[in-house]
Amino acid sequence: MASETGEILAGTAxxxxxxxxxxYASQIxxxxxxxxxxxxxxxxxxxxxxxxxxxxxxxxxxxxxITDLRLNPQTFFADATISLxxxxxxPEDSAILISSEGLLxxxxxxxxxxxxxxxxxxxxEIEDTQGSVSxxxxxxxxxxxxxxxxxxxxxxx
Length: 157
Description:
This protein has helices at 2-28, 135-145; strands at residues 37-44, 55-58, 61-71, 78-85, 95-100, 107-112, 125-126, 128-130. It is α/β, with parallel strands linked by helices. Strands 7-1-4-3-2-6-5-8 form an eight-stranded mixed β-sheet, with no helix packed on it. It starts with a helix and ends in a 12-residue tail after the last helix. Mean pLDDT is 82; it is low at 153-157.
């Protein structure tokens, strides 16, 4: 009888910890109740490393998320829909780019605010975009360009 009670208590504790973990994970992933906000759009040449739910940051702080990614069949660019908090109003000349957290970190979307007085209206498009940069292509450019260094000019042999 005592072992059955112990098993029930242990099972209840495991289920409680699992429920707490699921709640925590859903809050981190943004699966809870949607916060109020507004949407903007942006068109990127490449969106490698980001997906729906990726962070949108301003000055290093999360101010929104990517809510939709679609291929534009006319431009062959990736059109992103961005949901931002209501208290974040961006100048019309703001830029948006895909940044990396480091060599081993993930990617996120970074907003660089402009200096215009007018702000972007809900549903507007951020036109100044920069897509993701492939680390592999950068390394290949570096490796292939290493032999192209100019020879020492003006020195005697």
